Amino acid sequence: MRAEFPIVRHARLTLSVRSPLSICSGKNEALVDTALVRDANGLPVLPGSSVAGALRSLVARELGDAAAMDLFGFANRQDGIHLATAARLHFSWGHIHDVNNRPVDGLVLDRAVLGGDPILAPLLGDKLPHRDHVRLGHRGSRQDKGKFDRTYVPAGHRFSLDLWLESGPDSDADDQVLWPALLGLLTQHGLRLGGATRRGYGEMVFLAGLQCRFDLRAGRQQADDLAAWSVVPVSLAAKLPKGYQPVTAAGTTLALRNWLKVEIPLQAEDFWRVGGGAISFGQHYEKEADARLYSERQVLWNDDGAGGERARLDQPRPVLPGASIKGALAHRTAFHAHRLAGRWADGSVAMVAPDTPCEEVQSLFGLIANTDSEGQSDGLAGRIFISDVRLSETGKVQLLQHNSLDRFTGGVRKGMLFSEEALFRTDITLCLEIDTRSISLKARQAFRLALEDLRNGRLPLGSGHAKGHGYFRGHALPKPLLDWLNETGVSA
Fold first, then answer.
1. Does 435 reside within a domain?
2. I need a labelling partner for 316 at 20 to 30 A (CA). Which of 80, 193, 226, 407 fits?
3. C-alpha distance across the termini of the chain, in Å
């Protein structure tokens, strides 16, 4: 604490992972392409910089750049003079909860404790689950060297972290209004942390929190605050002293500007599937399926009535990853964007490079950064966040038998009988969150046509569309989404 900022607001928050969380360390590992950030116990953590970066972006977007620099500090050089100021808002690292719903903060010397925890043991060593990804080229097939994987923390896990805001006597009145707004940005639904957030990863949900204000200026009136602040525990696992008040989402809600959240219900016309799974769902098969549905496990919490909340790993459930939805929509949006602009493959109009998305797709779905020799990056963050679709039922899983045919005789090839699992006529709901600022009408028109193709059975999801899999039907698009897609002006 600095002398010029003697007033401190402190909050301890607990967040739940709604969709797989992937915050990578940047280190190379032998078995995976992306390694998660871990603490000294080998458990995944939330780096304070990840939370601060996500929140700073929201503050700059909603409250302006001046507020972001005031809270988070800045450093730059202007006319040869170095200008900098320290941050007033500080974050701790977020630590994961064990099966007893207590944050694991500090070194655990007895490794058997972690190894015996049913929800933490799968996160140790090289046991972390991962998703396989394939980058598609302009031909709609796998791009050269485009296969990679990403490790993640399963949905349902919980993390706790601290944040505190330093205020001066002059800024205390303004911070009285700013503090709930900051908590509102953290506690609102839709906060995403880590990598690949536009592909379904990193969605966080606020569960609970406690907050308190301490006036540490010299004087008798502040003596009680000083004594209370001196006994606030550093460990996230320790209980906070008396005087803290609950943080409620209702009391901190901050309506985001130019932010659209929509749900699009769909029903599969027939079979559909996303492959790459490790387990088979059929209990009556004589032989497990050769091609299995992709599935994931998540942590479920319950109150056992005696020792407080406990957790367990749920059985694997089929999942339609956000990446599968994003890839299909991005490629169909590119098709319509080129068609509407008259950019044809015959070369009559100059085309962009085959592996570079057109401008309309870049503005909606982003662009992977490429750094040139001077260190300049052309990366662009996408404006559309697509959530995973996790299915709760497995009763509609069907086993399909296939034969491989001899191309010469037209008969069945010996020993080439194989089977695959698929879901039949399943209802799903696509959840989209869209940053609607400064997206051109041409981009929105192309995206609307892609969504219309999806709901009218012309755009498949998953694998096997050449044999009729993956086609869906739905009702008209939600009115708020249509109003934005057809809006002639461009939001600032």
1. yes
2. 193
3. 38
The answer to whether residues 231 and 307 belong to one domain is no
**29 vs 34: CA distance, rounded Å:** 7
Selection from 19, 138, 40 nearest residue 95 by Cα:
40
Q: What pLDDT, in 10s, does the model give residues 172-189?
A: 888 888 888 888 888 765
Residues 79 and 196 in one domain: yes
**Position 17: which residue type?**
V
User: Do residues 285 and 410 share a domain?
Assistant: yes
Tokens 């655990």 belong to which residue?
108
Task: Categorize the per-residue pLDDT at 491 as very low, low, confident or very high, splitting at 50, 70 and 90.
Answer: very low
Residue 68, amino acid: A
Domain C-terminal end among 237, 252, 267:
252
Chain centre to alpha carbon of residue 423: 25
The tokens describing 455, both together, are 């709901």
- pTM of the entire structure? 0.85
Check: CB of residue 263 under 8 Å from CB of residue 461.
Answer: no
Give me the pLDDT at residue 174, please: 85
- Where does a domain end: 234, 252, 270? 252
User: Using alpha carbons only, what angle is made at residue 122 by residues 429 and 313, rounded to the nearest 5 degrees?
Assistant: 45
Tokens of 343: 């950019």
Residue 481 has pLDDT above 80, yes or no: yes
